[in-house]
Amino acid sequence: MILMQREQGAAVPVQVENRLFQQTYDLIVVGLGTAGAIAALTAASKGLRVLGLERLNAMGGAGTIGAVVGYYYGSKGGLFEEIDKQVQQLDSVGFTKAGGVNAELKKYVLEQRCLEAGVSVRYECAVIGAYLEGSTVQGVRWVGPSGVEEAGCRMLIDASGDAEVCAMFGAAMLPPGRPVDGKMQPYSHPIVSVQNDVVRAFYTDSGYVDQTQDNELTQAIMQSACMPTHLPEQFDESRKFLKLAPQLGIREGRFIRAEEQVTFADVLNDRLSSQPLLYAYSNMDNHNKDIAFESVLQQDWAVAASLWGITISVPIPLGALIPQGFDNVLVAGRALGVDHDLASCVRMKRDMQKCGEAAALAAYVAISEKQSLHSIDYEQLRPLLLENGCLNPSNHFGMKDSMSTQDDQNTIVSWITDHETIQEGLASIRPGIAIWSSRREGAAINASLREWVTQQEDENLRRHSAFALALQGDAAAIPVLREIMRERDTFVPRTSRKYNQVRGYASIYLLGLLGDMEIVPELLEIIHSREQFVNLSTDVEFINHDDEYFFQYFSFSLMALFRIAERNRGVRAAIIKTIGPLVSEPDFSIMVTMKPTKDLDFDMAGTIRRIVNERFAQWQAEESAVH
Questions:
Q1: Which end of the chain is more exposed for a tag (fewer CB within 10 A), N or C?
Q2: String of DSSP letters for 404-453
Q3: DSSP label of 180
Q4: What are phi and psi of 192, to 5 degrees?
Q5: Contact by Cβ (8 Å): 187, 208
């Protein structure tokens, strides 16, 4: 038997004698947060002997301790709705009124229900080791108020939020964050106040943190608490400070390499599971404003087509919860097997609660049938998922147009295959669906796009046809894209309810994809032309001032130059000569605001320097290798 521990960020194995655990459970759930509390309750309700370990002092995670009391998207149905209904009933009979789902009451209801179901709860306990025999976890070790303890298990659910236990025993993880620089989505630090005798929570994006690094996490906790939105000059009777949430609102962390990875590319190419545990549901709610540094696929979606607001239902299979190579481990929560791009959709509280329920039901079937997780018969599991609505086939909408904040009022949309309808869409002020439909049609519509891009009667049709051609990799788009760039076209489509992207800098992104050498001098000029950019965008939540507007042109020009230089090494020297000194200046700075507030500026200089320096180092290494 091997005891796996995590030391200095690395998984360290220690050979130990076989353990005869004094306590053995059917299931150990590590983390009783958004997913874990529901997992523990579900499993115990099915008669399993369950131990729940939580490093804090209450259940519910983001929705209770974290003060994220409302719901954004996520599909409806599941045990959590029963919990929320019970909370609302209590809320109406004398407790302090609160907005959203009352966080304090939800702690109480979850705890009461878990104890009634027979869950053995341990608060203030942090897992420090896992016992393995081959690919099977035999038990875990933790430290708590009584010191170091351990227990055996038949199944383990890692609901720690960042796959802490999986990382401890060396399960494979995806590289963190986005490919270009490893940056993850911004975090928030909710503040709780009393407004007109109602407890309400407020949060805004607070910056960036890698929460797996203790120094970074500590700094984030302290610095975000001192932001002007959280620490104003004074509070008054209309808004009385109550507390800061003890838990940061982390949107992204580790992702396991799962037995069945679900990626954004899979969803867009219709590679969907036919055996879902649940349907996750949201738009691609990426909070990063430096979208020029995101993946090509995400920029195709959100920049070229401005499809940020389109909501998508995503089938999540059992394999996405199983770490590669392990027999009796499930991950419940946002660390499941998705990728950075799709994680901005598959992270909503409703879905993460359902993920916990589904994981527990899978564990129950495996234990009852004395099977490994890989051997579970989906037809045995499916009726259990349907019972409480955790799995509800009617939740598989495909896509919706989310122009209304009331999702029930939003219409289901489909990709267009009729070319006349695509033409109408490209000629409109909401061209996104038509642009992406053209991408899917490929060669079948290419001749029509080439015709539409040359006509002069309809500017929107011509320019959006150029976008569609560029997404097909067709250089016939280049003349019109140059025209858009040189004009610095201020047109903003209305495809999404917000966060539509300005056509001027979107054209620069597409010219970079096409490797257009001719525009290199113009892009280098943009990099040095801050004073020429005056913000005309009406989407103040995304672009709020001149510097923020310039940042979009700067960042898209920078990445376009890098893409062009990948194809044409001859331009690298000019890029290094022009950009290197600029970003190296001590006072180099470009500010953006954090979503959704207009009051907080964040300096992107550090991000830009890191990306530039890493790219220049890569080029120099390639040059050295040649010589």
A1: C
A2: SSSGGGSEEE-----HHHHHHHHTSS--HHHHHHHHHHTHHHHHHHHHHT
A3: T
A4: -110, 130
A5: yes
Helix axes 419-426, 459-471, angle to 10 degrees: 110
Choose among 521, 492, 495: nearest CA to 504. 492
Contact assessment for residue 558 and residue 576, using Cβ atoms and an 8 Å cutoff: no
> Bridge-partner residues for 412, per DSSP?
400
The pLDDT score that the predictor gives to residue 624 is 86
- pLDDT tens-place string over residues 459-469: 999 999 999 99
Which part of the chain is CATH 3.50.50.60? 2-177+253-401
Q: State residue 95's pLDDT score.
A: 84
C-beta separation of 372 from 327 below 8 A: yes
Peptide bond before 596: cis, by omega within 30 degrees of 0?
A: yes
Q: Which two tokens stand for residue 599?
A: 């009051």
Structure tokens at 411: 């219409």
Helix (H, G, I), strand (E, B) or coil at 80: helix
Grade residue 581 by pLDDT with cuts at 50, 70 and 90. Answer: very high
Q: What is the DSSP string of 225-243?
A: HTSTTTS-S--BTTBEEEE
Class of domain 2-177+253-401: alpha beta
Q: CB of 401 within 8 A of CB of 494? A: no
Q: Which amino acid, 218?
A: T
Half-sphere exposure of 402 (CA within 13 A, CB side): 25
137 contacts 131 by C-beta, under 8 angstroms: yes
With the C-alpha atoms ordered 279, 285, 287, 292, is the resulting torsion angle positive or negative?
positive
Three-class HEC string of 251-278: CCCCCECECCCECHHHHHCCCCCCCEEE
What is residue 471's predicted lDDT score, i.e. its pLDDT?
98
The answer to whether the CB of 398 falls within 8 A of the CB of 414 is yes
Query: Rounded mean pLDDT of the chain?
Result: 95
50-53 and 120-122: which strand pairing?
A: parallel
Q: What residues are paired with 129 via a beta bridge?
A: 141
pLDDT above 90: residue 130: yes
Give the model's pLDDT for residue 230. 85
Residue with tokens 């009933």: 89
What SS3 state is found at 380? helix
User: Are residues 59 and 400 in contact, defined by beta-carbon separation less than 8 angstroms?
Assistant: no
